[in-house]
Structure formats: structure tokens, C-alpha cells
Amino acid sequence: MINMPSLHRNDALLLSRCTYLGLIVLLFPLTSARSITSLDASHFHPPLGPVALLESFPSPWVIVVIECTTCALLALWAAGFGKWLVGGLLSLSLMMTSGLVYSTGKIDHDLVILLCPFLMTLRGSWPERSLLFCLTVYFASSGIAKITWLSLDTQASLSWALTYFHGYGKTAPLLAWSLQELPGWSWEVFDQLTVWFELCVPLALLRSFRIWIFLLIPLFHLATVLLLGIDFSRLLLVYLPLGFLLCAHPRKVRSSIPPRVHIALITLCLLGLAFTFMQSWPFERTPHSLLAPDMPGLFLFPLLQALTVLALLICRRNRLPESAVNG
Amino acid sequence: MLASYALAAAHCILTFGIGEPYPSLQGPMFAGHLQRGRIIHVPFYRETEDRPRLPAHDRLLRHETLAAPVQRDSSLLAPALQESAFLQFLIGHSVRTRNPRPGNPRDFSGVEWSTYKVNAPLDSPPELIGEEDIIDD
Fold first, then answer.
1. Is the CB of A105 less than 8 angstroms away from the CB of B92?
2. Any idea of the CA torsion for A140, A143, A145, A151, to the nearest 10 degrees?
3. What is the H or E stretch that residue B46 is in?
4. Touching check for A188 and chain B: CB below 8 Å?
5. Is the pLDDT of residue B21 over 80?
6. Which of B1, B32, B66 is opposite residue A159, by nearest beta carbon?
7. How confident is the model at residue B136 (pLDDT cuts 50, 70, 90)?
8. ipTM summary value
9. CA A240 to chain centre
């Protein structure tokens, strides 16, 4: 019989922070903005955000200072020091770096990931509430932006698939097959499902719909990876911490994680961070992800799906005796 | 939940209105407007002149116009730029219709825009039927 202890809030926060940092160290290293300083000012076109206040790329030493500060703040944040002040400064410095990396033109989709550290330092149940809220806004705005996809006269996802295949030369696992085999109506179904699903994600703010939305999110991402090669696996930086936070039991008064394990986890995170920092900075190399394939979502999303199902089964099992008692 | 929708709508208005308008070609594509009836036009461009000595920065500016072919030969274009930062650049979405960059007047000589013409019936898979230049370049 599976019987996982429910989490104390502090345990959930610790696991969330360690997961966030662990994913950065192992799978999704922070992109350095140092290489873009070789471009001239005509390439500078920052996205909305703090970087928009600049007129051109900053000097390389400014970027080094921002990146070193980010690293130090990450260490403090992971260890649980400084609370919201450190969390806020960390989110701000991550936004600066991301803004610089994206200042050559591509649209920055990472805001919700960058806000994570700050939101996780809020008091009480605000971390999970605000994180869930930001995630729903993220999906809803994506759905609203695609509102014209609902027209039955055009198949926007097919247009994109054709562009990716003929224009970009993308090789998503099912892209060539789907263009060869799927009739136009199935692309229209994909258009409709995409927009309606993205617009429905805010329903996760209502408890009764939450399970269904959580079960569908990994499937939605997997479908977009397989068909279009669009990989949003970096969103695991939001999904996994949120998962831990939602497992926190409000009535749990005692921590389940022994102090030794607590210290060991933080030490491991700090060692990983130090290794990544040493790897990237003095030797001027970009830290490598452990994921070699181009589309990590291909196996990360099925894994997330399995974890979600398992967590829901465990929650259901743990809740049964309580309801039996209450009933 | 209503606040979530309201904020998402505000985000879209801000993003598309003043922040990051989609490029002139990808915008309509995003909205599915490059489909007329059952015909879909897939925009692309080709180099009509060989410019092997063009500096890397100029080549990058040229390819910003859509950046599609660049992703195939990305490492040859600007070896100075590294990995992901480089890809962020090349993936493009870079022609800002409201604020064209000083070095990017969008009228490059030696670049020819065109589209692949695809028949996309509802009851069968799409079929590439040729090329048609519908882009005024």
C-alpha cells in the first residue's frame, strides 16, 4: 500500500526551492547574456520589462555583475535566507538576464518561471495561490492571443505546421507524418482544442476542475512537442514546485523532513550551483544540460503525467479514511 | 478566475499593442490569415545573390526578416554568438513593424520573398502544389 506523508508547509517550500534549483543545475541552465555583447546597438530591441529602460547592450562587466549576483541570490534563496527580499531581488535579477538574452528580438515567454522565486517567498498559502494564478494567466493570455484560431474557415495550426516543416526544416517526431496523413478537419480540431484548453486552464482556480486541468496539461504539452516540435518543458520549473506546494497540508504542525536531510538537500543544491557557476564563469563555457536530445519534453511530459496521476491517487487514498471518519 | 482572464486580456493588449507586435508576416500567419479558402501560403525567402563576404552582423540583420532558413545553417552565420543566445536571436520574430531597426530597412537587395502554395482540403491531407509569389517585396 502506498502511503506518503502529507507535507508541512516548510517542507513543501524546501522541496520546491530545491526542485527549482535542481532543475536549473541539471536540466535547464540559465542562459548567459555575455555572448550578445558582441552585437552592435542596432540589434538591441528589448522586450517589455526592466531592460527596456536601457538604450543598448550593457558592458560585459555589468552582465558579469548581474550573473554573479543572481548566483549569490540563488544560493541564499535555496538556503531559505532573506525571505521575500531575497526572492524579489532574485526574480528581478533573473528578469534582467532574461531580458538581455531576449533583447535581440525573440519574444520572452519565461515571465512566470522568473517570478517563481519571489512568489515562493510569500507568507502563508500565498505561494501556491499566486503561482497557480500566474500560471492560469499565462495560459489564458496564450488562448486569447489565438482567439482567431476558433474560426472554422482557417486552420492556423496547419499553417504553423507547414511553416515549421517547409520553412524552418523542423523535425518533430510526428510533424512529417501528420502533414502526410491527417486531413484538414483534424487540424481544425487541434485548433479548437488548443484554444479552448488554454482558455479553460483558469478553471484550475476552482477546486472541482483542478484535477482535470492538471491531468490534461502534460498531455497538451506532449501533443505540441510531438506534432509541432514546440517544447515547453522549462515550465516544469513552475509545475513541480507548484505540485509540492499544493501537497502542503494546512493542519500538519510538525515537519516530516529530519534536520539532517534538510541540511543535506541544501548542501547538495549549493554544491550543484557552485559547480555550474565554476563551469560557466571562469572557463567561459555555457553550462550543459544533462538532456542531450533536442526535445526533452518528449520524455519529461510523460514522466510528469505519471507523477500527476500517482500524486492524485495518493491524495485520494489519503483522503478516504478522513472522509470516512467525518462521514 | 475572472481576474485571471482580465489580466490575461490586459497582457495581450499590452503585448500586441505596444510591446511586441508580431512581424508583418508571422502576424497574419499567427492569425491564420495567409489561408485563403482552402489554399495556404507558407512564406519563405531565398538569397538571389551570393554574398560570401558579408560581415556576420549584416548577414544576421538580413536573416532577421524571417530567419527560417537560418535555423538550418545557424552555426555558419555567426560563430561569435553561442548556443542558446544565438538561437534566441535567430529564431527571429525580429522585424518590428512599428520600430524597424536602423540597420534593417526591410528592403534588402538580393533577397526574394515568395510562398509555397499548399492545397489544404478538409477531408484529406494537405498537398504542396507549387510556389506563388504573393508577397510584395
1. yes
2. -150
3. strand B39-47
4. yes
5. no
6. B32
7. low
8. 0.81
9. 8
Looking at A231-245, B39-53, B114-128, which range is the least confident one?
Answer: B39-53
Global confidence as pTM: 0.82
Say whether A144 and B32 touch across the interface (CB within 8 A): no
Q: Quick one: closest CA in A to B4, which residue?
A: A137
By the 10 Å C-beta count (0-12 exposed, 13-18 middle, 19+ buried), A150 is classed as middle
Per residue in A155-191, pLDDT (tens digit) is: 888 988 888 888 777 788 899 999 999 999 999 999 9
CA distance A125 to chain B (A): 17
- The Cα A70–Cα A101 span in angstroms is 15
How far apart are the CA of A162 and the nearest CA of chain B, in angstroms?
7
* Residue type for position A150: L
Residue B49 pLDDT class (50, 70, 90 cuts)? low
Q: Helix (H, G, I), strand (E, B), or coil: what is residue A166? A: helix
State the Cα–Cα distance between residues A234 and A256, nearest whole angstrom.
29
| B28 CB-contact burial (10 Å; exposed 0-12 / middle 13-18 / buried 19+) | middle
The string of DSSP codes covering A10-39 is HHHHHHHHHHHHHHHHHTSPPPPSGGGGGS
In chain B, where the domains are located: 22-132
Q: Which residue is it, cell 526535445?
A: A295
